[in-house]
């Protein structure tokens, strides 16, 4: 409309009314405002969709992280249990000093401990090595 914007409100309205007596300018301004509102709403909904996708991905990452931590905790618990078994088996075994009369009884005791605690061959060897003394250790 290219009208001056200086003056009081009454003068501004009078200038606009003189220039456009039909009031068409109000519809045009209203339509422009509505268009801007629609664009704002659309951009907000796009922003909300992007925000939703971001939050969904973040939740998925947290879920995977939790599963990984649960698996690691399970492995750590198994390792602790295995160490406890190995320690118990070692403390339950009697020392073997190389006396041939004691070997058979000692061997049976080691085998029963290995089976009772579910020790692997490597852990059983460690247990045997820790319980030898005297001639048997040499």
Structure description:
79% of the residues lie in helices and 0% in strands. By secondary structure, it is mainly alpha-helical. It folds into 2 domains: 27-92; 95-137. The chain is rod-shaped and about 125 Å long. This is SAP domain-containing protein. Keywords: Coiled coil.
Features:
138 residues, single chain, mainly alpha
Specify the number of helices.
4
Helicity, as a percent range:
over 70%
Tally of DSSP β-strands = 0
Give the percentage of residues in beta strands: under 5%
Low-confidence stretches: none
Count of individual domains: 2
Coiled coil: 52-86
Protein name: SAP domain-containing protein
Keywords: Coiled coil
Organism: Lasius niger
């Amino acid at each position: 409309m290219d009208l001056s914007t200086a003056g009081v409100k009454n003068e501004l309205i009078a200038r606009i009314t003189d220039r456009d007596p039909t009031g068409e300018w109000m519809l045009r301004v209203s339509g422009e405002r509505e268009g801007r509102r629609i664009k704002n709403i659309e951009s907000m909904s796009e922003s909300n969709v992007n925000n939703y996708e971001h939050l969904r991905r973040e939740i998925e990452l947290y879920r995977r992280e939790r599963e990984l931590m649960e698996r690691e905790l399970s492995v750590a618990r198994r390792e602790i249990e295995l160490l406890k078994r190995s320690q118990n088996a070692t403390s339950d075994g009697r020392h073997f000093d190389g006396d041939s009369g004691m070997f058979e009884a000692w061997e049976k005791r080691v085998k029963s401990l290995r089976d009772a605690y579910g020790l692997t061959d490597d852990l059983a060897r460690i247990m045997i090595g820790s319980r030898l003394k005297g001639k048997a250790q040499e």
